[in-house]
Amino acid sequence: MLGLMIALFFLCICGYAIFKKYKAQTVLLTGGFAMMSVAILLGMGDILPVKNSTGSPWFDMFQFVAVLASKRAAEIGMLIMVVTGFARYMDKIGASRVLVHICIKPLQALRSPYIVMALGFIIGQCLHLFIASASGLGVLLMVTMYPILISLGISRNGATAVIGTTSAIDLGPSSGNTVLAAKTAGLQTVDYFVTYQLPVAVVVILAIAVTHYFVQRWFDKKHEGGLAAGVPREEEKTDHKSDTEPLRPLWYVFLPIFPMILILAFGFFKFRGIHLDIIPCMFVSLFISMVCEALTTRNVKKVFASIQTFFDGMGSQFATVITLIVAGETLAQGLTALGAIDTLINVTQSTGSGKTVMVLVMSGIIAVSCIVMGSGNAPFFAFSAFAPQVAKKLGFDAVNLLLPMQLTSSLARGISPITAVIVAVCGISGASPFEVVKRTAIPMAVGLLTTQIMTYILFG
């Protein structure tokens, strides 16, 4: 119990530091080293097994980070970097914008404001499968979907709230959290997505869409006098460079979707006996996109130069996400060295319903952390490393713990007024982030509750 109390003390300090905008990677690394140091001083546990030890527990801390960084960069790191690099390239050549433009088009034919809004949320969440950046998707939807919602009379806060939560669930192989969850669970990413994520996510998305319908209508009626009639429309216009940029050929809509087609065809269904992992699928898609861009622009030199965007995207992910994963696992090692996880497992087992309680506890910790930090990555990266160990000791599959943790990390992000996507969309619409999260809180809470219920029903 002493180890758990010490761990909670350090976790509070780390959470406060990240909330105060200290660099997350440095905070997590420092917290992990601090807890490992206390564990060494108090003789609570070894940092590394004897066969892997340097001979000194103090040097073992740094050996742990060195081995972990090398392993993560070579495995999950390359996967996340390639996926993100491709997403950046799609944005660079304008393919992502074409995809959003085509998908939003049917909404203009409908005239029922709140049905359009609910359907817009569902379309936006589907687009998030192909546009990995929550902020990037939010900005594109502010240019395309937002004017439609405003023209129908939806209030500025309501439209901003819906668009700000279109990335509420990180789904599919393009999501770093999905990739990490799958690898930690010992599953192929596409298997994790199709078999575990998708059945739960479909129900959660529908639940959130319905909740948005009633919540935004209630807020507009209470605070806007019903539909926002009389609101000066000139004040509601967005001003973004994408408005004036020419749209690329409409057939570009297939380029962001192509990797998913390849992944499902050859990674999941093994079409004609061919098996391709995500990285080869991404490189095939990149090559085809380059050819299409060359045929469109007729400027091979420009196309070759544009590939730097792909490499820059890979580098930025290494500098942020991969280092964050390593830092999070270092923090996890500190908690393990203090015996905090074993204590938590023993406490939950004593309640007689260890698995259910542990899922709720871990999901709750991540939800609170995401709201406070404004990030879904940092908390999930920090705590996901525990899942295999916890699941093994409680006698169930790691994926049953990782799935609700991973979905919670993105859902809770939508309630934080300091998360990047909320700040970005509010910056365009001129709405207050704090007013917007009042409107997102109930739909996201429904999403969190539905996630736990569906996970228990389907995989409990």
From TrEMBL:
> Which residue ranges does UniProt annotate as crossing the membrane?
27-48, 114-131, 137-154, 193-215, 250-269, 276-297, 317-345, 357-387, 407-428, 440-459
Residue runs in coiled coils: none
Q: What is its main location?
A: membrane
Query: Any idea where this protein resides?
Result: Cell membrane
* Record keywords: Cell membrane, Membrane, Transmembrane, Transmembrane helix, Transport
Membrane topology recorded in Swiss-Prot or TrEMBL: Multi-pass membrane protein
Q: Which family does it belong to?
A: Belongs to the DcuC/DcuD transporter (TC 2.A.61) family.
What name has this protein been given in UniProt? C4-dicarboxylate transporter DcuC
Task: Give the species this sequence originates from.
Answer: Pelosinus baikalensis
